[in-house]
Amino acid sequence: MSSTPGLNPAAWLFMALYLGVGAGLFVYGVHAYLMSWLFRRHEARASGVPDDTGGAPLPMVTVQLPIFNVERLVDAVAAFDWPRDRLEIQILDDSTDDTVMRVAALVAGRRDEGFRIEQVRREARTGYKGGALREGMVRAAGDFVAVFDADFLPPPNFLVATIPHFADPRVGMVQARWGHLNEDYSLLTRAQAVALDGHFL
């Protein structure tokens, strides 16, 4: 009579890894399905913009831009559907090259157009981006603060669509959904867009 030899340790390890990966993918799939179901269930409520302030004065909003290359983003923020006297723009500029002078010229030009905008400089980049945001927060005049990175291009109605949510006392922060400027550039960018969109259902 012959007996079938048992699995060696390497085979057991491979099987354990295989089962572990399979279990992880199963949990990920269930989570994605649950998020999709919750989104569909609350879609009507989530997609609506709350009522306006009911005639009350609009709050002061500080927009912080902790970035190096700033021109395109400043143009987008300057196009917000929000009164200029209720909007403050901070360019948190830790640049160490000729960007400093370009930002200074940009700030001067926007000030001439009536915008409340400043270039916030620091002697040392302590804390990097977090340190720059903290420095700007100390100087901010806004009741609310919006933060954008260099690759963000918020639409003109961004503040109109987000600020009213704070009328609900249970709301302390609003996370906006990401879009994609280059989603159709290639198969890779389309795959990346699908992966990122899953976080914003």
Please give a quick description of this structure.
With 201 residues, this protein is an alpha/beta fold.
CATH topology of the largest domain: Spore Coat Polysaccharide Biosynthesis Protein SpsA, Chain A
Largest sheet: 4 strands, parallel
The total of beta strands comes to 4
CATH architecture of the largest domain: Alpha-Beta Complex
Q: Please indicate the percent range of residues in DSSP E strands (runs of 2 or more).
A: 5-15%
Listing every helix as H and every strand as E from the N terminus to the C terminus, the arrangement reads HEHEHEHEHH
Binned, the helix content reads: 40-55%
Mean pLDDT metric? 84
Rg:
24 Å
Tally of separate domains: 2
Order of strands across the widest beta sheet? 3-2-1-4
Shape: extended
Uncertain runs with pLDDT below 50, 5 residues or more? Answer: none
Measure the end-to-end span. Answer: 61 Å
| Number of DSSP helical runs | 6
CATH superfamily placement of the largest domain: Spore Coat Polysaccharide Biosynthesis Protein SpsA, Chain A
CATH class of the largest domain: Alpha Beta
Indicate the structural class.
alpha/beta
What does this structure look like?
The chain is of the alpha/beta class and 201 residues long. The chain folds into 2 domains: 10-46; 61-167, Spore Coat Polysaccharide Biosynthesis Protein SpsA, Chain A, CATH 3.90.550. 44% of the residues lie in helices and 10% in strands. It contains 6 helices and 4 strands. The chain has a 4-stranded parallel β-sheet with strand order 3-2-1-4, with helices on both faces. Strand 2, helix 3 and strand 3 form a beta-alpha-beta unit. The termini are far apart.
